[in-house]
TrEMBL record:
Protein name (Swiss-Prot/TrEMBL): DUF1232 domain-containing protein
Alphabetically ordered keywords of this record: Membrane, Transmembrane, Transmembrane helix
Organism: Virgisporangium aurantiacum
Membrane topology: Multi-pass membrane protein
TM regions (residue ranges): 58-75
């Protein structure tokens, strides 16, 4: 396992919790929803090519999306009504937040890839 120095850890791209990402989407100092959604195909491509480190988070998002659309449910609505809907809503909220968080992180990664050493990126 690689050990990171304090400076290295401070420059790492930050992953936010899904819930925090939902709130941050509406702040003026973060990328807008259209920009984030437009980044999804590039993020998938960069991840599949091994250039971006989002594989585990994207895998979790894929599993949660499959759970949401799947007719198989861990807590079926037909039997437990409200509780069955709550688990689906929680997974959907996590998925939306994770997607927003990861696209923001990806956009920051793209910005760093374009940076030229010795020049300030604004």
């Amino acid at each position: 396992m690689a050990t990171y120095s304090t400076n290295r850890a401070a420059t790492q791209l930050r992953r936010r919790t899904a819930w925090t990402a939902l709130v941050r989407t509406f702040r003026s100092d973060t990328p807008g929803l259209a920009r984030r959604l437009g980044a999804i195909p590039r993020m998938i491509g960069a991840t599949l090519r091994g250039r971006y480190d989002g594989k585990s988070r994207m895998t979790m998002m894929l599993v949660s999306a499959a759970y949401i659309v799947s007719p198989i449910d861990f807590v079926p609505e037909g039997i437990l009504l409200f509780i069955g809907l709550v688990d689906d809503a929680a997974v959907a909220a996590w998925f939306a937040g994770a997607l927003l968080s990861e696209t923001e992180r990806f956009l920051e990664w793209e910005k760093r890839q374009e940076a030229v050493p010795g020049h300030v990126v604004g």
